[in-house]
């Protein structure tokens, strides 16, 4: 009887654990060299970074549709290593228009992609540069090394003032589907990524939402959702930059 009760309790815990969009931030990462990721955009509101993004054109940032942004408060900070201070390298903009993908599903987690049109033109220099959109739409093979960066709390829950990065690898989609089968459907428009060593805690979390996933040197995905942060054996899920999304982006910008 005791064994049956324990199994029942464990199954209930699995069912009620919520999906998280994007824990606080990069788990198991390291502080990057200042301004070594000049395409990164810090989306700032309520005195903190609420999401990340990538500058894909001089007036456009690509991020996640699930980022809930109050239009009057949002600022997009480019050229930042420490967004909480006024660095000379920074360029700060308001958002002129929001373009979430019209097929975004907050329950299904599908089509989690959004464009932000800035209220000015970014000046490209050593500290602010574009991240090229992919020109190839082949699926990313399992085992491919990827990097994801963002601002926020570390695995120790202390707040990081600086941009941090961690290394992940692409997880087989079928395996990922099984991990998420009780929560949501994983499809070909999504990528799953986690640490190569299952005993390491490496992940992207809530403060990283919308940030770019760079695989084999190519812009491949956008931080979307997961279950908890850095949970052993549970990969994070990313919006995959497929041909249909690139076509949608090009029609808008």
What does this structure look like?
The chain is mostly beta strands. It has two domains: 40-130 and 246-252, Thrombin, subunit H (Beta Barrel), CATH 2.40.10.10; 132-242, Thrombin, subunit H. It has three helices and 15 strands. The protein has helices spanning 2-16, 173-180, 243-252, and strands at 19-21, 30-31, 40-45, 48-57, 60-63, 75-78, 91-93, 95-100, 114-118, 145-153, 159-170, 190-194, 212-215, 218-227, 236-240. The protein has a seven-stranded antiparallel β-sheet, with no helix packed on it. Strand 10 (145-153) and strand 11 (159-170) form a beta hairpin. The longest helix has 15 residues, at 2-16. It starts with a helix and ends with a helix.
Widest sheet: strand order? 7-6-3-4-5-9-8
What's the CATH H-level homologous superfamily of the largest domain?
A: Trypsin-like serine proteases
| pLDDT < 50 stretches | 1-18, 22-27
| Number of helical elements | 3
Gross geometry: globular
Largest sheet report: 7 strands, antiparallel
Distance between the termini: 62 Å
- H-E order: HEEEEEEEEEEEHEEEEH
How many strands in all? 15
CATH topology of the largest domain: Thrombin, subunit H
Domain unit count: 2
CATH second-level architecture of the largest domain: Beta Barrel
Helical proportion? 10-25%
Radius of gyration: 18 Å
* Average predicted confidence as pLDDT: 83
Structural class: mainly beta
Q: Identify the CATH class of the largest domain.
A: Mainly Beta
Strand content: 25-35%
Oligomer: single chain
GO molecular function, one term: serine-type endopeptidase activity
Keywords: Disulfide bond, Hydrolase, Protease, Serine protease, Signal
InterPro entries: Peptidase_S1_PA, Peptidase_S1_PA_chymotrypsin, Peptidase_S1A, Trypsin_dom, TRYPSIN_HIS, TRYPSIN_SER
Pfam family, one: Trypsin
């Amino acid at each position: 009887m005791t064994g049956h009760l324990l199994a029942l309790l464990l199954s209930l815990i699995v069912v009620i654990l919520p999906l998280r969009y994007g824990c606080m931030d990069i788990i198991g990462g390291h502080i990057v060299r200042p301004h070594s990721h000049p395409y990164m955009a810090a989306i700032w509101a309520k005195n903190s970074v609420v999401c990340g993004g990538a500058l894909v054109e001089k007036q456009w940032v690509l991020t996640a549709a699930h980022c809930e942004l109050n239009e009057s408060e949002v600022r997009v900070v480019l050229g930042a290593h420490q967004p909480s201070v006024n660095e000379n390298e920074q360029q700060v903009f308001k958002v002129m228009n929001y373009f979430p993908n019209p097929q975004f599903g907050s329950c299904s987690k599908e089509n989690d992609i959004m464009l932000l049109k800035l209220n000015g033109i970014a000046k490209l220099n050593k500290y602010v540069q574009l991240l090229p959109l992919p020109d190839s739409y082949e699926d990313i093979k399992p085992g491919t090394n990827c990097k994801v960066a963002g601002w926020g709390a570390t695995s120790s829950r202390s707040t990081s003032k600086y941009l941090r990065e961690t290394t992940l690898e692409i997880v087989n989609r079928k395996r990922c589907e099984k991990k998420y089968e009780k929560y949501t459907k994983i499809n070909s428009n999504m990528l799953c990524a986690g640490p190569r060593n299952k005993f390491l805690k490496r992940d992207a979390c809530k403060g990283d939402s919308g940030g770019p996933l760079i695989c084999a040197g190519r812009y491949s995905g956008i931080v979307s959702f997961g279950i908890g942060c850095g949970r052993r054996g549970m990969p994070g899920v990313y919006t995959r930059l497929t041909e249909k999304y690139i076509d949608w982006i090009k029609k808008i910008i």
